[in-house]
Design brief:
By secondary structure, the chain is of the alpha+beta class. The protein contains nine helices and 17 strands. It has two domains: 201 residues, Ribosomal Protein S5, domain 2 (2-Layer Sandwich); 141 residues, 2-Layer Sandwich (Alpha-Beta Plaits). Bound molecules: (3R)-3-hydroxy-3-methyl-5-(phosphonooxy)pentanoic acid.
């Protein structure tokens, strides 16, 4: 049986998980997170420094499990996703990330990376968040870097910005460090950490999968185009800072209606910045809008339900856990019951450890 423990208490023996010596390895699991205050726009592409702070909820569904084993001999990194060899851009992204880890660890060994995703990849369902969070924990451990979660969140950020938030469970804020005087200071100060929420909040996120296929435009490309050309981007980023302050206060109060209202306006505003880009980037499909109408009807019927959408057509609806079944039924009537998943707040990334890793 596997033993699980939080990454902060890793002992020196963890370096040898799955082998020891030249064949060190580690296995980690992480869950996706959904932003209630969105990360949209980078101010430094290489370091993945965001324009503004973001705030998310880590989910308890769709985990990614990633194993990293160091190769004893020569040859390139080998990467598989759900048993299929990665190539092209996907492989390049992982190898580039491992290069960062190797540089920090002062080691050259190439690695074998095996990832199992339980969420459709590239469909705006945050597979890159759980993916790079799990990879950061497994790779850092395999290469002998025994880092605290905050450092690991800085590392995960370099793979995919939203991944920095999946290091932690529950509600999490990723700091933009926009006020830092130098880029080095910003790099050091741009990490995620948990934020407080009232125990009575008891939220659920009901995911309505409108389309599980990969998106046509990557979030990376869409962000770049929005920042460079959308006249709405600056005003949205400024209002997002105000949204975040109001959201934190609403979380502490346990005010689900306020949390939902702020989340919905922040997400619609983010999509408005994209629609105003030149040329426009549009992830929302007719089915997305039908789901949004259904959410409005639920609210009119007295159910506190609020929508958020990421770089894809799928809709995630925040509500009370006590209302989740009713919300899931209503969304299932639009997208089909098998395309609806109810999620609650989930745990942070952690190392799996044991002889079977
Ligand atoms: O982490 P990336 O580069 O996949 O960007 C994700 C951006 C959004 O999902 C749209 C918003 C967010 O904060 O997660």
């Amino acid at each position: 049986m596997r033993r699980e423990h939080p990454i902060a208490v890793l002992g020196p023996e963890a370096e040898g998980v799955g082998g020891g010596g030249a064949a060190a390895g580690a296995v980690a699991v992480a869950h996706p997170n959904i932003a209630l205050i969105k990360y949209w726009g980078k101010r430094d592409e290489r370091l993945v420094l965001p324009v503004s702070d973001s705030l998310s909820m880590t989910l308890d569904v769709f985990p990614t499990t990633t194993g990293v084993r160091l190769k004893a001999g020569a040859g390139p990194d080998e990467v598989t996703f759900n048993g299929v060899s990665a190539s092209g851009e996907a492989l390049r992204r992982i190898t580039g990330f491992l290069d960062l880890v190797r540089e920090r660890a002062g080691r050259d060994a190439r690695a074998v990376v095996e990832t199992r995703n339980t969420v459709p990849t590239g469909a705006g369902l945050a597979s890159s968040a759980s993916g790079f969070a799990a990879l950061a924990v497994a790779a850092a451990t395999a290469y002998g870097l025994r880092w605290e979660p905050r450092e690991l969140s800085r590392l995960a950020r370099r793979g995919s910005g939203s991944a920095s938030r999946s290091l932690f469970g529950g509600f999490v804020q990723w700091h933009s460090a926009a006020e830092a005087a130098t880029v080095e200071e910003a790099d050091a100060a741009s990490y995620a950490e948990p934020v407080a929420a009232a125990a009575g909040l008891d939220p659920a996120l009901v995911v309505a999968v409108v389309n599980a296929g990969p998106k046509e435009v990557s979030s990376r490309a869409a962000m770049r185009q929005t920042v460079a050309t959308s006249p709405l981007f600056g005003p949205w980023a400024a209002s997002s800072g105000e949204d975040l302050t109001a959201m934190r206060a609403a979380l502490v109060r346990g005010d689900l209606e306020a949390v939902g209202e702020i989340a919905e306006r922040n997400a619609l505003g983010m999509h408005a910045t994209m629609l105003a880009a030149r040329p426009a980037v549009r992830y929302l499909s007719p089915a997305t809008v039908t789901v949004l109408d259904r959410v409005l009807q639920l609210r009119r019927a007295g159910v506190a339900a609020y929508a958020t959408m990421d770089a894809g057509p799928n809709v995630k609806v925040l509500c009370r856990r006590a209302d989740a079944a009713r919300v899931a039924d209503a969304l299932g009537a639009v997208v089909g019951a098998s395309s609806v998943v109810v999620a609650g707040p989930g745990p942070g990334a952690r190392l799996l450890d044991g002889g079977d890793s």
